[in-house]
Amino acid sequence: MRIYKIVFSPTGGTEKVASIIANALGAEIETVDLSVQNFSGCDLTDDSIAVIAMPSFGGRAPKTAIDRLKTIKANGAKAVVVAVYGNREQEDTLIEMADTAKECGFKVVAGISAVAEHSIAHQYATGRPDDIDVQQLNEFAKSITGKIYSSTDTEPNIPGNRPYKKSGPGLVPKATSACTACGICAEKCPVGAIDKNNPKKTDKKACINCMRCMAVCPQNARKVSGAMVKLVGAALKKSCSSRKDNKLFL
Questions:
Q1: What pLDDT score does 102 carry?
Q2: Cβ distance 124 to 5 under 8 Å?
Q3: What is the pLDDT of residue 118?
Q4: How many CB atoms lie within 10 A of CB 143?
Q5: How far apart are CA 23 and CA 95, in angstroms?
Q6: For 191-233, what is each residue's pLDDT tens digit?
Q7: Pairing between strand 3-7 and 29-33?
Q8: β-strands 174-175, 222-223 pairing
């Protein structure tokens, strides 16, 4: 049975979680990267399993990732939806992903809210997913496999609200004086918001605040406002300081 890892992971945390689950489900894995520019969709078969993983941006799935997921034809493939959040809360991310997956023709058999290091306030969930997470996710993958091979197609009871919460504003990274105009950020930006001829220029309206440009810059030359980072960190302190467990829905 082919395993498809369908992932939107601008800074790498979601990719780590998705890989743990996909590797535990089977050996033959095909990656579908929703973060590449000009993503054109794909077709799956009804005997395949998809691990669909996205980060939570302020309690919602990234619109870009959702729009690209909608271009995939599932043809009855089974899906495990995975929302990855930075130790605050995934809120409506997972239910939005499950709803979209079903629109595409997937049969959602499991859901996971998993924790990874926060993409802006790195002091929260530092180093996660860690060994404890890996063990928990591997054990849950066994339960998912058992459900699939027992031919049980019941949908998990995934939490969330409809209508989904409104998305809030994000932080737009800017180039610093350390920028060498190498163009890697422009090449890797999921939505092409960075000018390839002048990487120091960013289209603020096109930017989806995913922080990929910061993660891939070899010169560490893209930053968001230090004052804003401190405000974000302070705002998250109460809700993020204690360790959150992964939440599993079968």
A1: 98
A2: no
A3: 92
A4: 12
A5: 24
A6: 999 999 999 999 999 999 999 999 999 999 999 988 888 888 8
A7: parallel
A8: antiparallel
| Angle at CA of residue 212, ends 207 and 215, nearest 5° | 145
Contact at 8 Å (CB) between 182 and 199? yes
Question: Is-contact 38 83, C-beta < 8 A?
Answer: no
pTM: 0.95
Give mean pLDDT in consecutive 10-residue pieces for the chain, a chain of 250 residues: 94 97 91 95 94 96 97 97 95 98 97 95 93 97 94 90 90 94 96 95 94 96 87 86 94
Cβ within 8 Å of residue 68, ≥6 positions away? 8, 34, 39, 41
Q: What is the pLDDT of residue 235?
A: 85
How far is it, in rounded angstroms, from Cα 39 to Cα 232?
31
Whole-angstrom distance, CA of residue 191 vs CA of residue 185 = 11
Q: Which helix (H) or strand (E) holds 114?
A: strand 107-115
Cα–Cα distances in Å, from 185 out to 13, 34, 181, 221, 230?
Answer: 18, 17, 9, 10, 24
- Whether the upstream peptide bond of residue 218 has omega within 30° of 0, thus cis, is no
pLDDT of residue 115: 97
Count the residues in the chain: 250
What percent of the residues of the chain are helix, what percent strand, and what percent coil, each to the nearest 5? Answer: 30, 20, 50
Query: CA-to-CA distance for 175 and 173, rounded, in angstroms?
Result: 7
CA pair distance 200, 193, nearest whole angstrom: 11
Question: How far is the first Cα of the chain from the last one, in angstroms, to the nearest whole number?
Answer: 20
- CA-wise closest residue to 223 among 169, 179, 188, 191: 179
